[in-house]
């Protein structure tokens, strides 16, 4: 296990290179967020981070084997600081000096053992949320009551307020808002059923129209055929009448012609 841990640590990118990579050809003064998680700190201390990051508002240095904050530069605009899963055991007074406007601080998974270690945070007047989850201090009796009394400015400790109400998540609120909009628009199931019914009605109407058209077409064709047959019958009748007239004339003429012949 030791060899495996040493191997994984040796293969981590060092902190200076990671900062250069995260800059992406920007100057430090243009960066508002910086994530350095899982890189390798130098002897447990911060390196490569300077006061040139004057616009920095969010900084994350989780799992970098950090033991000290002594080399943290002044970051007056910093609001959120992630320091989870390191080996910090004290020296939190540096945060009051270097990051006076912090509102969120995550120290979960560090080596903080008692309330006196976090006492300097009293001077972070804007601090609203503090996370000490998985620190030894959380095993003490009346831990939550003690921290809320020690740091009266905070609203949330380990993600919950004094009444055990969970801290809101902005992303979840946005999703809930979208869901509410969908609910106001009407249940999806009902609308689909209405659409299906309307679609069936339209299909039935179309089929009825087609049947009517076919009926009209058939009746029209049948009328044409009947008319053609009647016309044919009339034509044949006229021909027969004409033939009969001709025969009649011949029959009438024959006696006359015979008489004329006799006279001759």
Fold and architecture overview:
This protein is α/β, with parallel strands linked by helices and 264 residues long. The chain has 7 helices and 6 strands. A 6-stranded parallel beta sheet has the order 1-2-3-4-5-6. The longest helix has 76 residues. The N terminus and C terminus are likely disordered. This is Acidic leucine-rich nuclear phosphoprotein 32 family member. One of its GO terms (molecular function) is histone binding.
Order of helices and strands: HHEEEHEHEHEHH
Q: How many whole angstroms does the radius of gyration measure?
A: 49 Å
- Could you describe the largest sheet, including whether it forms a barrel? 6 strands, parallel
Task: Kindly state the percentage of residues in helix.
Answer: 40-55%
Q: Let me know the number of strands.
A: 6
Please give the count of helices: 7
Strand content: 5-15%
Distance between the termini: 152 Å
Strand order of the largest sheet: 1-2-3-4-5-6
Category from helices, strands and their pairing: alpha/beta
Keywords: Chaperone, Chromatin regulator, Cytoplasm, Leucine-rich repeat, Nucleus, Repeat
GO biological process, one term: chromatin organization
GO cellular component, one term: nucleus
InterPro entries: AN32, Leu-rich_rpt, LRR_dom_sf
What's the layout of helices and strands?
Layout: H1 2-10, H2 15-23, E1 33-35, E2 58-60, E3 80-82, H3 93-98, E4 104-106, H4 115-118, E5 129-131, H5 143-150, E6 156-157, H6 170-184, H7 188-263
Parallel strand pairs: 1-2, 2-3, 3-4, 4-5, 5-6
